[in-house]
Amino acid sequence: MKLHHQIVTASSLGQERRSDMLHLMQRCYDGVTAEKFEADLSEKTHVILLLDEAGHLCGFSTQQIYLHHTKEGPIRVLFSGDTIIAQEQWGTQELARGWCAVAAQALQLQPTLPLHWLLISKGYRTYLYLPLFFRLYLPNPDCESSELWQSVATEKFGAAFDPNTGIVRSSGPLTAGLAEVPEGRQDDPHVHYFLERNPTYAEGDELVCLAEVSLATTHGIGHRWLKKALA
Q1: In this structure, how many other beta carbons lie within 10 angstroms of the beta carbon of residue 38?
Q2: Are 206 and 168 within 8 A, CB to CB?
Q3: What pLDDT, on a 0 to 100 scale, did the predictor assign at position 35?
Q4: From CA 190, how far away is CA 45, in angstroms rounded?
Q5: Residues 118, 78 contacting (CB under 8 angstroms)
C-alpha cells in the first residue's frame, strides 16, 4: 500500500487524529498514557503524519525546533520526540522523507544558523538512521561524546540524562515484538554498537544522539532526499 507524509503544526491536530496517534503508540509501547502522550505533544512544533491512500494513520513523528546557546553562539536543535510506524508498514521510508522536508524548511528559514538533530533511540532501528544518513554523528565507535552533545542533552533532559552512559532513563518498556532483535541483526556493527551502548533498551531506556544537519554532513540516501527537499 502506497503511503505519503503530511507535515502539520502540533497545535492544529484535532482530537480524532490525536486519539489515532495515541492508540498507535499504545499498540507498540507498554505504559503509554494519554497524559504522557499529550505532554510530549504539547512541547512540539510540528508533526509528521504517515498516511495511507484512504488517509488512515500508519505512523507519525513529533518534532520540536528550538534555540540552544553555546560559547560560540546559538544553534538550532531539531528534536524528534514520539515516533512510531505501524509494524505492518515497516520498511517504508516515507517518514524519513517527511523528516528531511522538516529539516529542509528549517535550513531555508535560517540558513546562517547551524541545525543539529537531537534523537533519542529506544531501539536499534531508530539508531540505524544515523549511519544511513550522516557522515558524522554521536555517539559512534570512534567518537562517543562531545561538549555540544552533553550540553544539548543536559539542557533538554536535565537529571534524566546520564552523561556517563548517554542514556535517558526509562520512558516505558517496549512491547515484546519491538524489543526482539531478529537473528543475525546483532552481526551488523551498528546494531551491535547500539546494543552495547544501550543494553537496557527493552526497558525503555533511550540513547541520546546528535548529528549536524546540512548537505555537507549527510551522505547516501539522506543527502539525496535532503537535497531534493531543499530544491
Answers
A1: 11
A2: yes
A3: 92
A4: 31
A5: yes
